[in-house]
Amino acid sequence: xxxxxxxxxxxxxxxxxxxxxxxxxxxxxxxxxxxxxxxxxxxxxxxxxxxxxxxxxxxxxxxxxxxxxxxxxxxxxxxxxxxxxxxxxxxxxxxxxxxxxxxxxxxxxxxxxxxxxxxxxxxxxxxxxxxxxxxxxxxxxxxxxxxxxxxxxxxxxxxxxxxxxxxxxxxxxxxxxxxxxxxxxxxxxxxxxxxxxxxxxxxxxxxxxxxxxxxxxxxxxxxxxxxxxxxxxxxxxxxxxxxxxxxxxxxxxxxxxxxxxxxxxxxxxxxxxxxxxxxxxxxxxxxxxxxxxxxxxxxxxxxxxxxxxxxxxxxxxxxxxxxxxxxxxxxxxxxxxxxxxxxxxxxxxxxxxxxxxxxxxxxxxxxxxxxxxxxxxxxxxxxxxxxxxxxxxxxxxxxxxxxxxxxxxxxxxxxxxxxxxxxxxxxxxxxxxxxxxxxxxxxxxxxxxxxxxxxxxxxxxxxxxxxxxxxxxxxxxxxxxxxxxxxxxxxxxxxxxxxxxxxxxxxxxxxxxxxxxxxxxxxxxxxxxxxxxxxxxxxxxxxxxxxxxxxxxxxxxxxxxxxxxxxxxxxxxxxxxxxxxxxxxxxxxxxxxxxxxxxxxxxxxxxxxxxxxxxxxxxxxxxxxxxxxxxxxxxxxxxxxxxxxxxxxxxxxxxxxxxxxxxxxxxxxxxxxxxxxxxxxxxxxxxxxxxxxxxxxxxxxxxxxxxxxxxxx
Length: 713
Known about the structure:
Elements: H1 9-21, H2 43-46, H3 71-88, H4 92-101, H5 103-108, H6 119-140, H7 151-154, H8 158-165, H9 175-185, H10 192-200, H11 208-212, H12 222-232, H13 258-263, E1 267-271, E2 281-283, E3 286-290, E4 292-294, H14 296-311, H15 318-329, H16 333-341, E5 345-347, H17 352-362, E6 366-368, H18 376-390, E7 411-413, H19 437-450, H20 467-480, H21 483-489, H22 495-507, H23 510-526, H24 535-551, H25 558-568, H26 574-583, H27 591-628, E8 674-675, E9 678-679, H28 706-712
Parallel strand pairs: 1-3, 4-5
Antiparallel strand pairs: 2-3, 6-7, 8-9
Helix pairs in contact: 3-6, 4-6, 6-9, 6-10, 15-17, 16-17, 20-22
């Protein structure tokens, strides 16, 4: 087309008319129908954790078909199909024709256009992927014999990845395809649903009577069926939305964090009789939550279920409700510790902080109707219990953070708090565990001091302790300690008696403290800053030692800390250490000032190292440019051969890498060169050694002078 051609309005209109007739491909216009149930995850959800939605070892369906990284299991699909054909004596074309007859329904199941697959390609994909799944379930269910050395079952690493891949939203084929192939292949003594449940029961163990309730359950695809098996077996349900009672508007909030729930007097308990992890109950101040193992499988399962519920309108949002609920309850690592102590959460995912981060990321920007979810009555009951008790808790209600009230039909469920009044301080009572007494005591002292209660623990000599503050402090401590410890100190009447009892319990008596102090002193003396360790990192270790000393009733002076810091740094800091010792008074120097000086010196070293690296890179680039420029004389370097005045047998050999006379070119340092292909005429060149014409001094054959021999040596 002529680039200078100007498109007229009529031509532009024709182009627009053509575009208007085209159907959307990335999100088909029929994607909102009830028949469309297999989705590509929206970018806004996928960018949080792309790997959660994409298969790792096997592709099922069209979205990831042909991925070269998934070829290993793809090859075994043909083996599974061949075994089934050999066993049933039915032909491949029989099953292909069945899939061709279902083509329209299959295409309608996908939100993204799959027009790139022809009718035959689509039928072949459905048969190959469908029978791979069916044969896999049959083999695990022992309906079909498994070959003795089948690597799919022999290699332990395959199983967990395979189970996660089969429950990814982008990795599905319609459930009616699986059912049709299962029914037409051979007579079966068990249902497809029972085989699927048995397969996944190897990783999510449930009683057989629970699985039997789901044997006739239907689903849109494998992910939806397995998701429905938990929803179908839960006891908790929600009726159709009713007109909301405005008097209860204040209770219509997200559930509060575990620490606040405990502070209100509500107790947690693991529900071991629940048939589904969704069965959360609240009875008479007792919050019953089924135990769940948080691992990579549940993480992947929850994220894909939530993605499905966000994309598919015609389904319940129970998994989303559960994840948002648990994310609110586990707002901090302290909340996770509370649930772990009550055997509600078994954390196989990582640290408590990583688990908190997971639930916050998964629940971020999720459309969630706070008025109609299945836990709405329970949430209002817990919040009502909290609202009823918080006035009786005295000062405790002042440290409860406020949450946004969600009242719209499509609400973004997050656990972020509303902007707080700068004059109010949000504090949380820390929970005591078997390993965190030292940090717990520091936090607890800070909280109680902020509330004006610390004088009940360390009263002013000769002053009487206020009885109300003593009772409030006692209540604070009771809410912070585990139940088994609570029962042991419950009879003590004063907060100070309880505090001293806990200190002895966790830190030991005087004799034990002395032994610990001796151990700490040895650790302190042996502590050295490692090469590559930053000043901040080493200072943090020293600060940790100070905290441990303080917990035993001893202090380390700044003077000792400064000397320890200067004596422990690597040799590269010696120049600065010497300067500090010579020009500063170490006895009066604050520890923070010493750290600041070392950090400033550390930054200067880093900057100098970066500049040297840059200079070296520039020098190397310059040398490379020189070595790559085209020489017109003889001499690109090849080792240490050649004659010349640069010593010995010369420094370079080859075809020159510079123009003109040649720098270090040819067989000598300044050897004779060719210029434009012609040798230089030396008839008029005069040697300054023998005063003869026809050669240069370095080519002179005359006797060498003593000075030359000395230079040569």
